[in-house]
Amino acid sequence: MIIAPSILSLDYTRFNEQVEILNNSVEWIHFDVMDGHFVPNLTFGPDILKAYRRSSDLFMDVHLMVTDPDFFADVFMKAGADQITFHYEAVEEEKIPALIEKIHANGCKCGISIKPKTEVSVLEPYLDQVDLVLVMSVEPGFGGQSFIEHSYDKIRELADLRKEKDLAYKIEVDGGVNSANAGKLVSCGTDVLVAGSFVFKGDMEANIRSLKEAE
Ligand code: DX5
Ligand code: ZN
């Protein structure tokens, strides 16, 4: 199981210290890009990703919560992203395969994400093309929200589809993840746990350890 701390909750007065802890304790960094249109919040641009790229060799897992992921995919791939995950809800269905192909053509992994109210079934046509499916377990836009219980059913459904169709996409969950729900999330089929507030509040190393132990 992979832990992907969301740097939405990093303490920017302690950037070097906290990034060093990440470098020594996890494999991925989850990078929440918000444009103030797709979600009512505004976060990072490519220059911040470049700063992380200079400070860390970890896998940069970029989550685009933007209305124009076709444009921002290029921007963040140029800035050093290792994976670009866009939202199903932000792209016209007929344009989704081309966006996945463009991301792959740049040597980048590609993920597709659904919001809590979007059903797993809409993703079926794309599951054989993507490397990862991101299940939002909170309404996208802010860290520190409560986990939506219905998310377990969506993870189970994705795990069943993966087995049925003999596919290999990773299942990632993002929002309200903590040591109390991590074990159940993994047992339902989750491969990647995104956690922001749980990781960065208090003792980071102890928080990360408690997620790893929850397997
Ligand atoms: C929401 C963000 C958050 C963040 C994690 O749009 O994607 O889910 O990554 O936030 P926590 O772990 O604080 O819920
Ligand atoms: Zn995210």
Question: Would you write up a description of this structure?
Answer:
The protein has helices at residues 15-25, 46-55, 69-78, 96-105, 151-164, 182-188, 197-200, 204-213; strands spanning 2-5, 28-34, 59-65, 83-87, 109-114, 132-136, 170-174, 192-195. The chain is of the alpha/beta class. The termini are close together. Bound molecules: D-xylitol-5-phosphate (DX5) and zinc ion (ZN). Residues 6, 8-9, 30, 32, 63, 65, 138, 140-145, 174-177, 194-198 line the site of D-xylitol-5-phosphate (DX5).
Strand percentage lies at: 15-25%
How many helices? The count is 8
The count of DSSP E runs of length 2 or more, i.e. the number of strands, is: 8
Helix and strand composition category? alpha/beta
The small-molecule ligands in this entry are: D-xylitol-5-phosphate, zinc ion
Bulk shape? globular
> Taking Cα atoms only, what radius of gyration do you get, to the nearest Å?
16 Å
Average pLDDT, rounded to a whole number, is 97
Span between termini: 7 Å
What is the helix content?
25-40%
Major sheet characteristics: 8 strands, parallel
Q: What string gives the helices and strands in order? A: EHEHEHEHEEHEHEHH
What ranges have pLDDT less than 50 throughout 5 or more consecutive residues? none
Strand sequence of the main sheet, in spatial order?
Answer: 1-8-7-6-5-4-3-2
